[in-house]
Amino acid sequence: MDDFTPEELEAARIIFAGNCDFMWGSADLQQLPPPDFTEIAFAGRSNVGKSSLVNALTGRNTLAKTSNTPGRTQQLNFFNLGGYVYLVDMPGYGYAKVSKEQRKNWDKLIFEYLRGRPNLKSVLILIDSRHGLKESDIHLMDLLDKAAVGYRIILTKADKSSKKQIEEVSKSVMDVLKKHPAAYPSVFVTSSEKSTGLEELRAMIIALK
Fold first, then answer.
1. Which residue has the higher pLDDT, 171 or 110?
2. Which residues, at least 6 apart from 100, have a Cβ–Cβ distance to it below 8 Å?
3. What CATH superfamily is the domain 6-208?
């Protein structure tokens, strides 16, 4: 995990404690906002905890919709973080209790957005710390490599994993990252429930801008 000064951590905390408003929802690429504002996207398999992490980072309970039903987020949701950056909550990929046609449409939206968005600064790929990387995560990483879009791996739900399990998953992920040129060579460990790693993740997002 990156090292940040107390001043950087505090500056990021203040920004994330300020205004963060839902600005835009896009169900297809024709509905995207103009590409004139820095974007940081949150991607991950269905039910990995994307919405929960966005809520925890901003200190809100209902900013991003959460659900125990995989596939709840069905569009790209843009949140304006205090005029600094757009946080983009993306539809979950992989397993979801939806039709094959819906899943195909969501996947198309996700991948075309990632490939063609010039103001997309970085993608945060969320991985469940209990399960590690799956085939669909590797597929996304390959796509980002080809598109030359930088990305970072964020382990979620650390409160539900043992320290040993997190260490093993982190090492396994790091071994895979060495083979991916667009990947940042580090793993962030977070828990939305226990606020683990959130200070550093806020500072990292602001630094990416």
1. 171
2. none
3. P-loop containing nucleotide triphosphate hydrolases (3.40.50.300)
